[in-house]
Amino acid sequence: MKVAIFSAKAFEKPFLMAANQSNQYALIFFEAALNEQTALLAAAFPIVSCFVNDTLSAAVLNILAKNGTRFIALRSAGFNHVDLHAAKNLGLTIARVPAYSPYAVAEFAVGLMLALNRKIHRAYNLVREQNFLLTHLLGFDLHGKTIGIIGTGKIGTVFAQIMQGFGCNLLAFDPYPSEACLKIGVNYVTLDALYQQADIISLHCPLNNESKHMINAQTLTRMKPGVILINTGRGALIDTKAIIQALKNKTIGSLGMDVYEEEENLFSQDLSDAIIQDDVFARLLTFPNVIITAHQAFFTREALTNIAVTTLKNIQAFEHGTLDETLVSYPNDN
Ligand code: NAI
């Protein structure tokens, strides 16, 4: 059976080929992202595999379904980029990789936090310029500080466990508290209390209607002055224009973001010769207390192995009619 793999990067091909052990599927790799212009490439492919910055809008799904696609194997945990209403109506089955390495993302969030607090990104450049002064590099001890974790699923829980090792007080907000977090003394509080008390806030919840722009002009004013904000969740959890304002007036201390709300126009591409047209993003790049990475938190060998293995397992399960349909929660309406 033929599988069209969109947004196929050179780095993941060996992992997907290794997972396709007995060559039971004909994996055809397309470097292009899936969108309305490229969707016809998948004509006559019953199975399509996509990553986070592929477009799975109603229009794209319509083209896929019309041309014989029946199954979409997401190589991501998040599925906020899929129009699930359209998929359901078109009879398309979607599966995802619910957990590939919570450690990869949680550890990266900690890395962003440490770099921002101790200004490691600045120190790296200063020392290379032979400027050995410590003037701009003052940080604070993490020990004894309060960490606010929004979303304590698989990644948020690992993040909490790591931060417990640093000797931090742990606050969390999640409609469904995690047993593992409760066990290590995480204190579940209201979002408001978390905003007011946390020295560092890390976002680990999915993007949905409820969480979109949860960090906005209003919520930012409730946070502790100087708070460090880390977003490895999804870009649109933060209202970017509001956070730029908060950085300008120093309401927040620093920002680490691995995701950006308009990232599909930027990330996963080499734009080093291009003029960035996104003025909001360009403004973010000017702050010395902002670190932006291009959706790389998942990027470890272990995660790529798990993504490839689970994607192939999902394809196999679809083919044999044994797919766990709870992998993606479809909307209840029609
Ligand atoms: P998960 O499904 O295990 O946990 C999500 C948790 O968020 C659940 O406990 C849920 O109850 C909670 N939640 C839902 N809505 C919430 C809200 N409005 N406020 C607070 N909590 C809420 O998901 P997992 O694996 O921990 O991943 C979390 C998110 O991380 C994903 O949805 C994805 O957007 C992002 N992610 C980012 C990656 C990266 O490379 N930067 C890689 C993988 C995931």
What does this structure look like?
- The chain has 334 residues and is of the alpha/beta class.
- It folds into two domains: 2-100 and 301-327, Rossmann fold, CATH 3.40.50.720; 102-292, Rossmann fold (3-Layer(aba) Sandwich), CATH 3.40.50.720.
- The protein has helices at residues 13-19, 58-66, 84-90, 102-118, 120-128, 154-165, 179-183, 191-197, 217-221, 240-248, 279-284, 301-319; strands at 2-5, 26-29, 47-50, 71-74, 93-95, 146-150, 169-173, 187-188, 200-203, 227-231, 252-257, 290-292.
- The strands form two sheets. Strands 8-7-6-9-10-11-12 form a seven-stranded parallel β-sheet, with helices on both faces.
- Helix 11 links the parallel strand 11 and strand 12 (290-292).
- Helix 2 packs parallel to helix 3 and helix 4 (102-118) packs across helix 6.
- It is globular and about 60 Å long.
- The model has no long low-confidence stretch (mean pLDDT 95).
- The chain binds 1,4-dihydronicotinamide adenine dinucleotide (NAI).
- 1,4-dihydronicotinamide adenine dinucleotide is lined by residues 77-78, 99, 102, 105, 150-156, 173-176, 204-207, 210-211, 232-234, 258-259, 295, 297-298.
Topology of this structure?
Elements: E1 2-5, H1 13-19, E2 26-29, E3 47-50, H2 58-66, E4 71-74, H3 84-90, E5 93-95, H4 102-118, H5 120-128, E6 146-150, H6 154-165, E7 169-173, H7 179-183, E8 187-188, H8 191-197, E9 200-203, H9 217-221, E10 227-231, H10 240-248, E11 252-257, H11 279-284, E12 290-292, H12 301-319
Helix pairs in contact: 1-12, 2-3, 4-6
The structure holds 1,4-dihydronicotinamide adenine dinucleotide.
1,4-dihydronicotinamide adenine dinucleotide binds at residues 77-78, 99, 102, 105, 150-156, 173-176, 204-207, 210-211, 232-234, 258-259, 295, 297-298.
